[in-house]
Amino acid sequence: MQDTTLPSNDEALCAFAQELADMARSISMQYFRTELDVLEKDDLSPVTIADRAVEAAMRERIAQVYPDHGIYGEEQGQQGLDRAHIWVVDPIDGTKSFVTGMPTFGTLIAHLEEGTPDLGLISIPPTGECWTGQAGMPTTFGDSRCLTSGCTSLADARFYTTSPDIFDENGLRCFEALSRRARMRRFGGDCYAYGLLASGYVDAVFEMDLQPYDYMALVPVVEGAGGVITDWQGRPLSLDSDGRVVAAATGELHREMLEIIATVS
How far apart (Å, rounded) are the C-alpha atoms in residues 178 and 201? Predict the structure, then answer.
C-alpha cells in the first residue's frame, strides 16, 4: 500500500497555500460584479483594484510567514528569484472574465523549490471549487482525488483554449490544425479549463503567450491527476518557458498533439 503521509513541512506549505486561496477569495468576491474602473497595463491586458488588492494581501502574508521565500506575482513583479523557495501567484487569472461577470476566473498559487513547482492550487472564488496538486501525491478536488479522462486520441478529445485571439499567425495555424481534429472545441475558462482537465471533463488545452504566474500552479495539478503539461516542444514548464503551453489527459494524446504542432510550425 502506498504511503501518502506528507512530511510536516509539506503539510504546512499546503495548508498555507489554502489559507492564501481563502484570503484571495474573500477579497475578490467583495469586488466581483460591482462597478470597477478597468485599467490597461503596458501589455494591453486589463487590471482592476481587485487584482492589486488580492496580490498585495497575499504578498504581505507570504512575507510574514516565509520571509526568506521569493515571490513572483502578476501585479507587483518579482523579488528573491534566486532563493530556493519561491511563491508564484496570479491574484485573478481571467481578469476579462472577472470584469464581465463570468464566474470562471481563478486564483493561482504555486510553490517552487529550486525552480521546480512542487505545489499548485487552482481556486475558483465564485464557486468555491479548488484543485490542489502536490509533487508525488494525487491531485485533489476539494477533499476527493481526481483523475484525467484517459482520452488517448485527439479525434475523441474535448479541446479548450481561452481564446483564438491569444495566438500569433503560427500559433493560429497550430490551433486550427489541432482543434479541427478534436471531437469538440470550446473557448474560455482561463485556468478553470485546466482544473476541468484534471477532473476528467476536458481532455486537452492549448495556449500561448502565458506568463509563469499563469501556468506554474497548473503543473502539479495536471500531473498529479495523471495528465501531461509542457511547452510546445514537450519540455517541462519553468520560469524561463516561452509561454506556449499544451496540456493533455494522457501521454498518448499529448504526443499526438506535439507531432501535429511540429508538422504545422
Answer: 18
86 is in an annotated binding site: no
- Per-residue pLDDT of 71-121, as tens digits, reads 999 888 899 999 999 999 999 999 999 999 999 999 999 999 999 999 999
Cα–Cα distance measured from residue 71 to residue 94, given in angstroms and rounded to the nearest whole number: 20
For the stretch 185-226, pLDDT in tens is 999 989 999 999 999 999 999 999 999 999 999 999 999 999
214 is in an annotated binding site: yes
What are the structural domains, with CATH classification, of the chain?
Answer: 8-145 (3.30.540.10), 154-264 (3.40.190.80)
CA–CA separation, 95 vs 50, rounded Å?
Answer: 9
* pTM (whole model) above 0.90: yes
* 261 in a known ligand binding site: no
